[in-house]
Amino acid sequence: MSVRPTALEGDAGAWDAFVTQAEGSGFCHLAGWHEVMHDVLGAECHYLVVSGEDGELEGVLPLARVKSRLFGHYLVSLPFLNHGGPIGTPRAVRLLVRSAVREAVRSRADLLELRTRRDLDLGLPLSMRKHEVVLDLPAAEETLWDGYSAKLRSQIRRPMKEGLEAKFGAEHVDAFYDVFARTMRDLGTPVLPRAWFERIARTFPAQVVFGVVYRGSEPLAAGCGFVWRGEFEITWACSVRRASRIAPNMLLYWAFMQEMIRRGVTRFNFGRTTPGSGPHKFKQQWGGRDVPLPWCRYTSGERAAPPSPGDSAYSWGPRLWRHLPLPVANAVGPHLVRYLP
Asked: Under a CB-based contact definition with an 8 Å cutoff, are residues 170 and 205 in contact?
């Protein structure tokens, strides 16, 4: 076997063919993320493949570099996403991890983080700082509805009674982004650029799903996620704070579940969350189970973890960001977010 880097020029088809059939693969492994990361954010991508003697792929690992003087230097598989660690035969995975560690040492990265969904026993420390909440979907939405408490059903009905309506499709990208950008500012977090989601819509039309809850023509809640092998992950979700009284986010999640049942999806993944946080409790109320994310890490520098809004050293940032005028936050955020993993 041999490990080599690839820019995916001429290799994208073979890469995706391998990802489609590989055990443990996810939408984060698709080759299109290379161009999304590089073209939209200017990220340095370090994609690795393992080939056997016959030239056939036996393993792949997508990596992207996130580097700044303020926040540190990280190699992540993959930033802004929840998965993307090495996949392939056990031997190929070991070779990929060794190569990634060598690159982290060579480039003096503070941290290598391989965002795996399974404990692959790679000989690296694991971080369980993030969980997923996963719900098995029944074949009929009535079964799911009947299993909810009267309180939860009442919360879902509230936005319906207010005349709110959920719509799905790539034509709602702009409405999604309007809600997303406002929500990120209110949370004190730099926002990804609009081009990020526009490129995702073009690059992954078979996997990505955009959904927006409207009051008339006004978007109040929105989500974006991906379908892969019978599972849907809602990767980004947001709602307008001033509309919290009528709970548009409750209709958003319920409508996404209805849509996925109609598509024959059998698992609803609420995305990553911090255990014990408010978003974690919100996701648990829908009846899903917690699944820890065993992310593998190699530390070669002083920083043992990527920056987080909860870190005391950076807590001033979110407090300041929340007070920025929305146009300013939307103009500056996309330039800053590329330095955050």
From this structure: yes
